[in-house]
Design goal:
Strand order of the largest sheet: 1-2-3-4-5-7-6
Largest sheet: 7 strands, mixed, barrel
Number of helices: 9
Distance between the termini: 76 Å
Number of domains: 2
Number of strands: 10
Order of helices and strands: HEHEEEEHEEHEHEEHHHH
CATH class of the largest domain: Mainly Alpha
CATH architecture of the largest domain: Orthogonal Bundle
Helix content: 25-40%
CATH topology of the largest domain: Phosphatidylinositol 3-kinase Catalytic Subunit, Chain A, Domain 5
Strand content: 15-25%
Structural class: alpha+beta
Length: 357
């Protein structure tokens, strides 16, 4: 009996040590399951990379490196190219957004294990706006797991051409891969077929559209896939719209953000509900309850942030207070959220530059 007990204890200790070893070899929790800032260095011809602003972007051979928990440098070869539309244009952003393309065999037992292609959001006009946009994603994570996870990084650039000299690392953030986000939620990425707003599950649509109103973002469209990804439940065929790219949101307030002319708005700080017309306000109650339930969590997100300016935190919480005044006042809520029902309004206007239906 004692021999059997001893065997069980030794075997249990072996399993625990094995689990610990696997975790150590794997460096850390999965990339997007940690709140710790990841300090990275990208090395290569950075000057050529960031000047690739026209036509089809081309990949550059680069390396990305970091120090592991034992302060050992881990260096990973990869390909990187510029991406995006507005932020990739000439004379708008200091750094365009980037796409990191890993080889899966090169990321085994690293922070990037299991990753293939990752979007990296770079500072356009200063990294304080990067941090603000990062927190907009964090709000979406609080409201629903059907959202893109993000990881804040401190980025160093090592330019082999010596034409770009960055003395201090700056903030950037990584965005979870679309297929991984879908898989995490038991869903799959939908194809590029035309999908209209009313095809999205109604409560999921209202929650998403209300989130966009919450952060004062009008730069999105379901049917034109403007800053929206569609995922689908393979069993029920239910469609969910997942938003991303919030640099034009009023809560971020970048220096270059302006509302589309067709919306006839004075500023991105002006909230405009861009959902479709729903006359029965009862449909909004579930979403209202969710925002009210999670209000303290959202406010705490900002109040506890060591990366945001105190003045910005204060002004942002006041700005969010305005949203809660609306949804807690039935008349105000009806006025704001039935805007798409107005015959002379711009609720369903097609934004210039988007493809025709």
């Amino acid at each position: 009996m004692m021999l059997k007990l001893r065997f069980v204890l030794i075997f249990g200790l072996f399993i625990n040590n094995l689990a610990y070893s696997v975790q150590t070899i794997g460096q850390t929790a999965p990339l997007f399951d940690s709140e710790e800032i990841l300090e990275l260095t990208i090395s290569g011809d950075i000057n050529r990379l960031v000047k690739d602003r026209k036509g089809k972007p081309e990949y550059d051979e680069m390396t990305i490196s970091y120090l592991d928990q034992n302060q050992k440098e881990i260096s990973i070869p990869l390909k990187i190219r510029t991406r995006g539309n507005f932020r990739r244009q000439q004379n708008i952003c200091t750094y365009p957004p980037l796409l990191l393309n890993f080889s899966k065999k090169n990321v085994e037992n690293t922070f990037f294990e299991g990753q293939d292609k990752l979007k990296l959001v770079m500072p356009c006009k200063g990294d304080k706006y990067v941090v603000r946009e990062y927190y907009a994603y964090k709000i979406s994570n609080i409201l629903s797991p059907k959202s893109f996870k993000v990881r804040l990084v401190k980025l160093n650039l090592d330019d082999s051409s010596n034409k770009i000299k960055v003395k201090e690392p700056f903030f950037a953030f990584l965005i979870e891969d679309e297929e991984q986000m879908a898989e995490r939620n038991g869903m799959v990425a939908a194809g590029q077929d035309l999908i209209r707003p009313k095809q999205i599950e109604v409560q999921e649509f209202i929650r998403m559209a209300l989130f966009q109103y919450f952060i004062a973002n009008t730069d999105w469209s379901i049917q034109f896939r403007q800053n929206i990804k569609i995922i689908q439940n393979p069993k029920t065929n239910e469609l969910i719209a997942v938003p991303y790219d919030f640099d034009f949101a009023g809560i971020v307030l970048t220096t270059y953000a302006k509302p589309a002319e067709e919306l006839e708005m004075s500023s991105v700080r002006e909230r405009r509900y861009r959902g479709y017309c729903i006359n029965n306000m009862e449909h909004f109650q579930k979403a209202f309850a969710l925002f009210i339930e999670l209000k303290d969590d959202i406010y705490q997100l900002y109040q506890s942030s060591p990366y945001l300016e105190s003045s910005y935190i204060k002004s942002t919480l006041n700005y969010l207070d305005e949203f809660y005044k609306v949804i807690n006042n039935p008349k105000l809520a009806e006025w704001e959220l039935q805007y798409p029902c107005l015959a002379g309004g711009t609720g369903d206007v097609v934004i210039k530059g988007l493809k025709n239906e």
